[in-house]
Amino acid sequence: MKENKKKNGLLLVIDSLRYDTLCNTKFSDYLFPNLSKLKKHSVFTSCFSNGIATQLTLPSLFSLTYPLDYGGYENGIRERPRSFIECFKEQGYRTHLLSNCTEIATQYDDYHRGFDTIQTTQDFGNVIETKISRTIRPRFLKLSKSAQNMVNDSRRWLFPPPSAAVFSFNK
Description:
The chain has about 170 residues and is mostly helical. It has one domain. It has 7 helices and 2 strands; from the N terminus they run αααααββαα. It has a two-stranded parallel sheet with strand order 1-2. It is extended.
């Protein structure tokens, strides 16, 4: 008799990651090398959001309901039917939440329902912005010669060398 083995699943949710960031393969391979590898070796057809903000989208994502159902989005999934995570849990899956959004792991909104373990991490927004400004911008967004001269002139005006005299006239 064949043994019924359950497959593992991974739901990766990245808040505010726009489609155009990942559709440019050269850009995404450089900025998100691991995510690009995952994308190339996974099944992905399409993705839609039920809201334009995290607070609207999370209740829909977790409970498969519309944002304004069950008293609106202010209470997370507290008043909503069981989450899809709880369904996986009932089928014997181990569930783990790793999030950089500490609010999602609180008891108040009930997003913790169905998870065996929950870990929160720091927000990596600043780390990513630093990486972009130091690597991607200079490489992919080169300024024209005249624009670069304007930037350099502005820098010299805003940040003069210590020996330069700066005068300010007041009436």
